[in-house]
Amino acid sequence: MSAEFATINWRGRPVRIECQWIAPERTDAPLIVFLHEGLGSIAMWKDFPAQVCNAANARGLVFSRPGYGRSTPRADDEIWDVDFMHRQAHEVLPALFTALKLDDEKPWLFGHSDGGSISLLYASRFPDRVSGLVVLAPHIFVEDVTVANIEQARTAYLSTDLPAKLGRYHDSADSAFWGWNRIWLHPPFREWNIEAELDTIRCPVLAIQGIDDEYGTLAQIHGIATRVRGCELLEIPECGHSPHRDRPDRVIVAATSFIAKNRRQTP
């Protein structure tokens, strides 16, 4: 499947967003939108979104956020602030949906890590525009273990071949890595917390996390369940920060069953 591009106006300039459709011919099927992690892109999902859509008999939209993949890289002077995930949820995602003529859709959002947090923030701000969420290893507050491992990632980027590896998936590895790394290690970001914002979410939510997640503890998804009525949790043993890579079959079964069940219950 080849990628296409949509253009939005963001931060005062046109930004090209790399997009890829899965099974667009399924016109009457639900739409699942996949939101990648802090160093992710369309290419880094590999064939997992297609597997989910085939199992769920759904259409899919995968895209690379600004600064990632083949989307417009960050400007040299563009430094992300503490609200960077809010801006993705409140500005970029609505603009992308408008550009793709999806304003009349109520998609399911499938988000991993930062993409999971962005999905939660979108559902909080626009509770009537989303059918449901599947979030993998989302962050709702900052933990010491997260910061410690992101510090290790910084060391690896400066001292190993990590830039070359990321360069396979991004037009600018520096754009992707430093945008993510600098804000997560920015001291004021330690106070970032979206727990209170979860109270306005009205759609079904499935929150999945690996028990061996190196970037967060189970307190993240337990915090979501405390705030979101009816939230379902799945804790997966022998699984790290990327359940869709570590235990793909378990995630696909859980996600597709969750979507099918909630579609039947929705008038």
From TrEMBL:
Under InterPro entries, the record lists: AB_hydrolase_1, AB_hydrolase_fold, AB_hydrolase_sf
State the superkingdom: Bacteria
Instruction: Tell me the protein's name.
Output: Alpha/beta hydrolase
The organism's taxonomy opens as: Bacteria, Pseudomonadati, Pseudomonadota, Betaproteobacteria, Burkholderiales
Which N-terminal stretch is annotated as signal sequence? Answer: none
Any GO molecular function: hydrolase activity
PANTHER family reported for this sequence: HYDROLASE, PUTATIVE (AFU_ORTHOLOGUE AFUA_2G14860)-RELATED, MONOACYLGLYCEROL LIPASE
Annotated ranges, domain AB hydrolase-1:
32-252
